[in-house]
């Protein structure tokens, strides 16, 4: 998680909030919205919970395959269909554990979600699509999004191509991202949605070449895809210009780079094996994912240019798996570090280890460092309260504990983030119960604490929540 704060509202007028009209539909795959009638979601959630309770009451034995007496029928004689589809219905809620002084809503999540996913296998390519429709009780609207719409094919023996809307990821970290600069949806993750929604989709072209000793991935994103950052609509955040926590209205709306060839994103990964160890080299040209820059002339938050070079190594050690990762973040718009409206360059380091210490009990830990470059220039030009500047070194330690039981149908886990430099923490306990192949329940919490509102985890203390999700897959 980046240590950059959302420090860009200032005391200037912001552009009008996006997505507040009665409808906002974008056929290019981005979020589309329509206002939901008040109270309709509560009725829908009650109906879903009643349905799930009825399904849960069905004996497990009734869900087993019935072989019957049709031994004369050969199931393999029928040609498999080239088209397959599946999906799920999910009801989810997340309740704040304390009052938030700047957001009146008691819930960070209240939604009924339908996801449909389809795949068509043609002779020369695979076509896939995945779309979500959501009745959102927090925002009082219906939303829809195409999370995947792509074609995959192999024009040559060693080359794979994926074109279209897709979720992209690489790197070695566990919820800490060093070289994975593809868009993240922090608002979904911190509000209580499933972990899969932390990774936001991109409209991109991915080319994968497989060699004898090395492999190469090239990802081109013609239009910059920023993170879905905390904007005050669902979760509050700290604004150093005001020296206080803030929430919508107004919603933080950042000005994205113009759609041009010059502003396209390029990500590279060269990787391979050295014995039992996996190594990788990374490169990126684009923008910081968070709106950590500010255009003083126009009075809007913006995205600073970013170039990055990095490397990672992962392999077996002492009965477990270690991983090492590093990256140099070159802030191309402020290499001297003396512009307070542009983030400084950084060196980031990550080291981790995971091992099954007992049967079905796994322990994983990580150490993460953000080293802010040109710190003297940064501190000398920092325009806000003297207590608010970042430390030159930000340290984060994580501990993940996971215990699996009942043939992995019940999973207990907790993920802890602690920053000794910021004196703040993020604790995320979870319980996953798979009742059957089609029905699953999830419960957990996002708990934040910190000595100061100005630190990364500390600013979210009033957003602490407990969540519950029920999903029926088909």
Structure write-up:
With 474 residues, the protein is mostly beta strands. It has a single domain (24-54, 82-473), classed as Beta Barrel (Porin), CATH 2.40.160. It is built from three helices and 24 strands. The protein has helices at residues 40-56, 186-191, 375-381; strands at 23-24, 32-35, 83-96, 107-121, 126-136, 141-156, 159-167, 201-210, 214-221, 237-239, 244-246, 265-274, 277-287, 293-295, 300-302, 305-317, 320-331, 346-358, 361-372, 393-405, 410-419, 424-434, 439-450, 465-473. The strands form three sheets. The chain has an 18-stranded antiparallel barrel. Strands 10-11 form a two-stranded antiparallel sheet. Strands 14-15 form a two-stranded antiparallel ribbon. Strand 16 (305-317) and strand 17 form a beta hairpin. The radius of gyration is 24 Å and the shape is globular.
């Amino acid at each position: 998680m980046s240590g950059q704060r959302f420090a860009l509202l200032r005391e200037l007028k912001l552009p009008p909030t996006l997505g507040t009209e009665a409808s906002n539909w974008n056929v290019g795959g981005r979020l589309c919205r329509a206002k939901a009638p008040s109270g309709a979601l509560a009725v829908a959630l009650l109906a879903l919970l009643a349905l799930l309770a009825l399904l849960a009451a069905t004996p497990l034995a009734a869900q087993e395959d019935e072989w019957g007496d049709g031994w004369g029928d050969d199931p393999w004689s029928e040609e498999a269909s080239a088209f397959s589809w599946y999906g799920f219905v999910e009801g989810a809620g997340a309740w704040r554990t304390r009052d938030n002084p700047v957001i009146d809503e008691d819930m960070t999540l209240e939604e009924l979600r339908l996801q449909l996913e389809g795949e068509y296998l043609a002779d020369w390519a695979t076509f896939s699509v995945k779309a979500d429709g959501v009745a959102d009780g927090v925002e009082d609207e219906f939303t829809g999004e195409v999370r995947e719409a792509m074609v995959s094919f192999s024009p040559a023996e060693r080359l794979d191509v994926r074109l279209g809307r897709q979720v992209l990821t690489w790197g070695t970290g566990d919820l800490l991202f060093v070289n994975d600069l593809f868009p993240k949806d922090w608002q979904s993750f911190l509000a209580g949605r499933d972990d899969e929604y932390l990774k936001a989709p991109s409209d991109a072209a991915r080319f994968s070449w497989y060699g004898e000793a090395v492999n190469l991935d090239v990802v081109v994103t013609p239009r910059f895809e920023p993170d879905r950052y905390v904007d005050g609509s669902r979760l509050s955040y700290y604004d150093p210009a005001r020296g206080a926590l803030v929430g919508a209205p107004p919603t933080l709306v950042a000005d994205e780079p113009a759609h041009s060839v010059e502003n396209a994103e390029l990500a590279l990964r060269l990787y391979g094996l050295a014995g039992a160890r996996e190594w990788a080299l990374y490169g990126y040209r684009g923008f910081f994912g968070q709106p950590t820059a500010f255009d003083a002339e126009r009075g809007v938050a913006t995205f600073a240019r970013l170039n990055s070079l990095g490397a990672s190594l992962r392999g077996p050690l002492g009965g477990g798996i270690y991983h090492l990762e590093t990256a140099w973040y070159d802030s191309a718009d402020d290499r001297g570090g003396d512009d307070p409206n542009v983030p400084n360059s950084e060196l980031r380091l990550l080291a981790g280890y995971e091992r099954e210490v007992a049967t079905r009990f796994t322990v994983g830990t990580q150490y993460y460092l953000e080293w802010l470059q040109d710190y003297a220039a940064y501190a000398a030009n920092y325009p806000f309260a003297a207590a608010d500047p970042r430390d030159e070194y930000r340290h984060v330690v994580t501990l993940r504990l996971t215990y699996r039981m009942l043939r992995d149908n019940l999973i207990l886990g907790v993920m802890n983030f602690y920053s000794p430099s910021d004196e703040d923490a993020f604790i995320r306990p979870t319980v996953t119960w798979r009742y059957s192949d089609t029905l699953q329940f999830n419960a957990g919490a996002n708990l934040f604490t910190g000595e100061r509102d100005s630190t990364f985890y500390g600013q979210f203390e009033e957003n602490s929540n407990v969540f519950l999700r029920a999903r029926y897959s088909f």
